[in-house]
Description:
Blueprint: H1 3-20, H2 31-42, H3 44-61, E1 70-74, H4 80-88, E2 92-97, H5 100-112, E3 119-122, H6 125-135, E4 141-145, H7 154-161, E5 168-174, H8 181-197, H9 214-225, H10 231-240, H11 246-259, H12 287-296, E6 300-304, H13 314-330, E7 341-347
Parallel strand pairs: 1-2, 1-4, 2-3, 4-5
Antiparallel strand pairs: 5-7, 6-7
Helix pairs in contact: 1-3, 1-4, 9-10, 9-11
The structure holds S-adenosylmethionine.
Amino acid sequence: MTNHDKIIEESIGELRKKLNGLTLSELKISDYNKRYLQEYIANYDFLMYQYSQLLAKVIKSLSKPVEESVFIDYGGGCGILSYLAKAIGFKKVIYNDIYELSVNDSKLIAQQLSITIDNFIFGDVDQLILFLEKQDIKPDMICSLNVLEHIYDVKGWFNSIIKIQNSFSLLFMTSANSKNPFIAKRLMKLHKKVEFEGVQRKEGWKEIDLSSSFLEERKKIITAKSGALKPDEIKHLAHRTRGLRKNDILKLVDEYTKGKEIKYKINHPTNTCDPYTGNWAEHLIDLNQLKSYLEGLKLKVTFTNSYYGYSKNKFLNAPKFILNIFMKIFGKHNLVFSPTYTLEAKKVV
Length: 349
Ligand SMILES: C[S@@+](CC[C@H](N)C(=O)[O-])C[C@H]1O[C@@H](n2cnc3c(N)ncnc32)[C@H](O)[C@@H]1O
């Protein structure tokens, strides 16, 4: 075990104690984040295995010591990655999320855990960059877990982040691994469900998430925009606008009304997003295409895999053991067997 592994393990142990000390029923946070925290507490060792692998990559790719580095937890949710980054000893930890409720909840959770997160930023990448510029903060590490697959305009997001003037590393780990055929199959089934049927709201539902069919909601948006369209045209436009958010759907309807032509085409058979928020339902991103795009932005890019963590389910642990061996054999860039991929990018100035 390296010294870094030991620090990560200790930080995870420290956070466990703090989380176990929380009385969730008394916390004045949303049911949505209570559900998240509950899941973390109930499956702590299993879930922390992913965090420990991500944090090991983080420390490895830093060009300065941890205690001199600024860490950004992008799309932090209920803040677990931020709390761990703080425990590991980063000089500054900045939490960000596009969902205001989660930002407010995380402030409260951090307080209850007696963890000082340096800044909480509400908003998308442009609000984050504005904040960094105003405060003259130079981030060393921009990190996220399970966020990349929800960002509406991935290319636009990177166009913004590279405006940061200093050198930095970016590590985005996600379980929406499009290179793993089992994961891709499972997520494509999910895409079809949210697109055509919708899902049942359950306890701890994220209030801004849509539960009705995305396709039906796009039909409503299109119908409300242009009363002059025939039912067939509305149906056609609703299908052709899969993967677009309301503002872009309306632009496309305008274009169509003027020229009866649709230029936009989604290149994936099932990927789909919430037409109001643009939040993708587990976006299966074409990683080869993304890599060449990011290299065009002068970023150094690689994708790396991670190992499966074992759970109490012995039936599942056996195939996981075998897949972990395959990954050792095929090396860290092989994503086919992996439960996640990590986009590792570096801007060097
Ligand atoms: C699946 S949750 C993961 C939360 C957290 N990283 C974790 O692992 O527990 C995805 C998070 O990304 C946030 N998010 C999605 N798109 C975002 C964007 N464009 N900018 C910032 N946050 C975003 C969501 O609000 C949500 O909190």
